Structure formats: C-alpha cells, structure tokens
Amino acid sequence: MNDLQLQRYGRHILLHEIGIEGQQRILNAKVLIVGLGGLGSPAALYLAASGVGQIMLCDHDLVDLSNLQRQIAHRTSTIGQTKVSSAKAAILDINPETICVEIPLRVDPGQLDDLVAEVDIVLDCSDNFATRYAINRACLTHQKPLVSGAAILFSGQAAVFDFSMPGAACYNCLFPEDSESEELRCATTGVFAPLTGIIGTIQAAETLKLLAGISAGLCGKLLTVDAFDMTIKQSAFQRDPNCAVCAIK
Q1: Catalytic site residue from 100, 186, 219, 243
Q2: Which residues pair with 161 in a beta bridge?
Q3: What would the mean pLDDT of 65-94 be, rounded to a whole number?
Q4: What is the distance between the alpha carbons of residues 197 and 124, in angstroms, rounded to a whole number?
C-alpha cells in the first residue's frame, strides 16, 4: 500500500479487525455484482470506496428516469446509457483506482458460470428468481460465497451463503425453486427508495467482512427488514437434506 492508499483507507486500517492485512485483501479482491439497480448501486459504490480492487458489473438494462428514485449510482445525465457504464462512471469518480469490468448482458447460466469462476465473492442484486437460482448454482459449483439481497414494497432481506464452509445451505434450501412463491416487481408494486439502500449497504458490509477475513454475521442467517415500522429480524436456517440443488453435491 502506498501513502495515498494508507490515507484513503486509514479509517479501515484503524479497525483492528481489518488493519493493513485486511485492507490489502480488499485491495486484491475481485467481486461480481449482478444487477446495478436499487441494491447493486449502493453496494457497488461502497465496495469501490472501500478499495475493492476489481468489480465486475453485470446488467443488461439501460438507465431510465424511473430508476433515479432509488438507483443512486445513476444520474439524470446518464439516462439512456447502459447501467454498467453509468455505474462505472460513478465508481471511478469515487475511486479511480478501482478496475471496473463492464458486462452489459443478460447472462445465461454458462456465461454466469465463467464469471463466477473468476471472482472471490458474488453479490446477487438481481430482481428475478431465475437469475437468483442460476447465481446460486454457479456459486455452489465454484464454492464462492454468495451475498444475496432483495427488496420490494417496504420489505427487504439479506443472507450470506458461504459455500467455502462444509455443509453450507444454499439459496434453494431457503427458497425452493419448485415452491409457489409469488414474484413481485418494483415496476408494478413499487418499492420504498431508502430500503434498497439499506439492503444494498448490508450486502456491501457482509462482502467486505468476508474479503477482510472476518466471518460474515449473516452466514446461515436471513435478515429481514420492514422499513414501514422499522423492525429488523434475524432467523437462522440450515441446509435442506432434500434440497434439489445442494443435497446431491
């Protein structure tokens, strides 16, 4: 670390749980963020500000006026641009040392598998179950930690699935793919803007702790946030021995 880096990341280095060694791990890290919307925006900005060396930005969408209510990585001036290029500009304005890799695609499972293999941690900031299940499978295959988040209406949730740990549960254990869970979309139901910031920031926090060598507080736990009455709860979950995804591994 050079003098400018010691100054930039000094408040992290002062934390004995992180220190110089932990901050160096963050600087050396590669992270994949799938989805640069309400969750991915704050997560990407905090990871870049904290010194994550390389961030792979994956989103096929373009910036729209309706995004600006909550997707804080984007600006009025970037409407019409790809979300990955808009987010990259915001990231580099905060930390020009961050290497940003733009992936302006709706990736298929094969592409996702290749991307996950390249990184240390994956943040699922997507907005649909199909992508979440595909990310879960790829992270399980490559034993990469998955930091998951979701937000709709006034309700949000976050969880960490650390597949480097023996017997770790997967996303499918918690939300089985063959269940009849209703998929809600912000475009039709709405979402409280600060809620996406809360969940995305929690995802960034859990990611940074894992990168620095600190055990993430949400490993094997589901955190739920009700932003209407501001209640926050944690509930533990375990691997499903009959899970269609991880039980056969």
Answers
A1: 186
A2: 146
A3: 98
A4: 14
Nearest to 203 by CA among 112, 87, 124, 103: 124
Q: How far is CA 42 from the centre of its chain?
A: 9
Q: Which residues contact 99 (CB under 8 A, 6 or more apart)?
A: 53, 54, 55
Mean pLDDT of the region 57-82: 98
Plot region of 47 (φ>0 → left; ψ -120 to 50 → alpha; else → beta): alpha
In the block, residue with structure tokens 């934390």:
15
The number of angstroms, rounded, from the C-alpha of 180 to the middle of its chain's C-alpha atoms is 25
Residue among 38, 197, 31 at smallest CA distance from 115: 31
CA distance 228 to 167: 35
31: nearest Cα among 49, 44, 12 = 44
- Output the pTM of the full model: 0.95
pLDDT for 249 equals 47
Does residue 139 have an active-site annotation?
no
Can you tell me the distance from the alpha carbon of 210 to that of 99, in angstroms, rounded to the nearest whole number? 20
CB 132 within 8 A of CB 171: yes
Q: Are 26 and 211 in contact (CB under 8 A)?
A: yes
Residue 112 pLDDT greater than 70, yes or no = yes
Confidence at residue 53, expressed as pLDDT on a 0 to 100 scale: 97
